[in-house]
Structure formats: C-alpha cells, structure tokens
Amino acid sequence: IEHMFQVQRQFNSDVAHELRTPVAVVLAQCEYISEKKPSLEDYQEFAEVIERQTRKTNEIIEKLLNLSRMEQGRIKVQYEMVNLQDLLQVICEDEQEKSGENLHISFKLEPIEAYIDIQLMTILVHNLIDNAVKYSGNDVKIEVGTRHTLPYCRTGSRQVENKIRLWVMDHGCGISKIDQKNIFQPFYRSEKSRNSKGIGLGLSLVQRIAELHGGKIQVESELGKGSTFTLILPVKKEV
Ligand code: ADP
Fold this sequence. Notes:
This protein has helices at 2-36, 40-71, 84-99, 118-134, 177-182, 202-212; strands spanning 80-83, 103-108, 113-116, 140-149, 152-153, 158-159, 163-170, 216-222, 226-234.
C-alpha cells in the first residue's frame, strides 16, 4: 500500500512538473506582451511560442485523459476483424508523409487478420514508429513486421503458442538495461532522450492498449545498436 501511495505521489508530482513548464512560458509571454506592447513582427513570434506551448499542454492533457480512461475501464474496446497488413500500410504511409525522405520503412508482413480495435491499435503503432524515428537520428531505417506463431508440439508436452506478433525495429540509439525496466512508466524518459521532443507518456499508452487487447509489449534493445518493440496478441475469434 505504501508503494502504491508512493507511485501516486510521484505521478502527481510528475504531472504538475510537466504542466508547469509550458504554462509558465505562456504566462511569461502574455505578461511581456501586455507590459511592453511589442511590434507586430514580435507579436507573431510570441504567438508562435504560445501556440507551441499550448499544443504541448494539450498533448499532455489528451494523453493523460486517454490513460486515465483506460485505467478506469471507461474505454470500451470496439473489436472488429482487421487486415493487419492493410492497417500497417496506411499507418506507415502517414508516417512517411510526416518524415519525408529521411525515413526508410521495410516490411515483413504476413497476411494476418486480427480481432482488434482499429483506433487503439493505430495509436499504439503510431507511438512505436514515432519513437523509432525520434530516437534514430537523421537517416532512419526501420522494419515493421507481423507473424502468426502457431501451436507446436514438443516431445511429451504440447506447447501452445497461438499468437500474433507485431514489431517495430529500429537502428537508433538503443535503450540501456536499466531504462528498459522503466520506460513503460508514465513520464519516464531516459537521460539521453531528455533533449528530444516528448513527454514520456507514449509507451504507457502503448502498454495499456496492449493489455486491453489481452496482450503484452516487449522490448529488446542494445545501446548504440537499436531497439525492437514487439506486441504479442492472443488470437481471438470474431464473436
Ligand atoms: P517520449 O518518447 O515522449 O519520451 P515514451 O513513453 O514514448 O515517451 O518513451 C519513453 C522513453 O523510452 C523515451 O523517452 C526514450 O528514452 C525511450 N524510448 C522509447 N522508444 C525508444 C526507441 N525506439 N529507441 C530508443 N529509446 C526509446
């Protein structure tokens, strides 16, 4: 119980901390504008800063709301049979448009139909690809793949592995063993990534979405070599 309180206290303090910075910037800009009456050109610059910081605040609030809805079971998973190959192609086209020529995506896709919530799964995959891009430097090479691992037999005992695997692999900065244990906690960011854009909520959402589907998310990574995030889903039949 003490640990739970500790986690809650830490979470509240992280939320306050993350929101305080952009709000302080917006306040400072507004105060400056009303005191100094800057020129029209400067106004433009102030407006851009305010817009950027307000967008950041909005992103934090949106992600927190989504997380809290999921925690409280207030998000109903809308299952439907989806062709994973098609869904991933569409998501990757979006990502390609966002990142341009610096991003090279290769595919290892099996033709798989999965019983999933399209919207939630789209959020999950976007988060994984966004991270792969963000933590890869300039020339980004990633692999997106799916595989259906079927039940197989071992001498004497039957091993059941009827799962769908979906992975995003990058050749970016990699994640240390210690960080790998913490990156799924809200607001956790590794020391090295603090300078890049982000708020540390993406992987918490990814993990929650995986769990809502009865699945889990795994990370394999080596510093300086890259990372692979794999979603493992149970095979569900349409009801
Ligand atoms: P954000 O990217 O906004 O910081 P996330 O919750 O998505 O938040 O990720 C948490 C942390 O995990 C990141 O700050 C980064 O340190 C690490 N991380 C996530 N994905 C990768 C990746 N593909 N390569 C290297 N580090 C990663």
